[in-house]
Amino acid sequence: MAGRQRSDLDNGAQIVSGNLGKTVQRLRKAYNLSLSELAEQSGVAKSIISQIERNETNPTLATIWRLSQALDVSIERVLASADDEPFVEKLTRADTPILTSEDGKFRLAAIGWIRTVEWLQWYDVTADPDGVLESDAHQRGSLECLSVLSGEAQVEIGGQGERAKAGETLRYRCDRPHIIRAVGDEPLRAVMVCIMKAAVME
């Protein structure tokens, strides 16, 4: 996973999303899926889906990914029989998963399509001054690109560091432990893209 501990997906990175339950319920009903059918397609327990729809639980990223994958399959089926009608999907702030560092100083909004998470991820990055995000190594051949919009960032890998200011981009291998720091006095704002299988593109 880009810009965060690889174990987050398994250990359960918590999602901050106020309207998540309503969104899941709306999509499920739009595709005429019962709770049981969505549970079968996603591999998420029916009781968990019910709790999510009632906003009684804060699901992990892994759970959200499985649900989204199942619902996106339904979207593809709808599009396949829609006579090539245009498809535009809008996600509000409340619909966008936010991953936050333990100290709350570093935040990643997952603005990429959840279905591409295994090979392509992109995030809206915001961080307070001195915010730090430490990440374990991603899968071999992974490449990360951090484009700074405002403030200044430093990426550290293997004891080496490089800084980037607004308008600059750092591109680096992320298949080894790496750290992103918000340096300077200004908050950091950036866009981060991670290509998980970049090596096969060479």
- The proportion of strand residues reads 25-35%
Question: How many beta strands in the DSSP annotation?
Answer: 10
Taking the alpha carbons of the first and last residues, their distance comes to 21 Å
N-to-C SSE string, H for helix and E for strand: HHHHHEEEEEEEEEE
CATH fold name of the largest domain: Jelly Rolls
Tell me, briefly, the overall form.
Answer: elongated
Mean of all residue-level pLDDT scores = 80
CATH architecture of the largest domain: Sandwich
Our count of domains comes out at: 2
Strand sequence of the main sheet, in spatial order?
1-2-3-10-5-8
- Helical element count? 5
Q: Helical content, roughly?
A: 25-40%
Reported for the largest beta sheet, the result is: 6 strands, antiparallel
List keywords for this structure.
single chain; 202 residues; alpha+beta; 434 Repressor (Amino-terminal Domain); Jelly Rolls; 2 domains; 10 strands
Give the topology, please.
Elements: H1 8-11, H2 20-30, H3 35-42, H4 46-53, H5 61-80, E1 98-100, E2 106-110, E3 120-127, E4 132-135, E5 143-150, E6 152-157, E7 160-165, E8 169-173, E9 178-183, E10 188-195
Antiparallel strand pairs: 1-2, 2-3, 3-10, 4-9, 5-8, 5-10, 6-7, 6-9
Helix pairs in contact: 2-4, 3-5
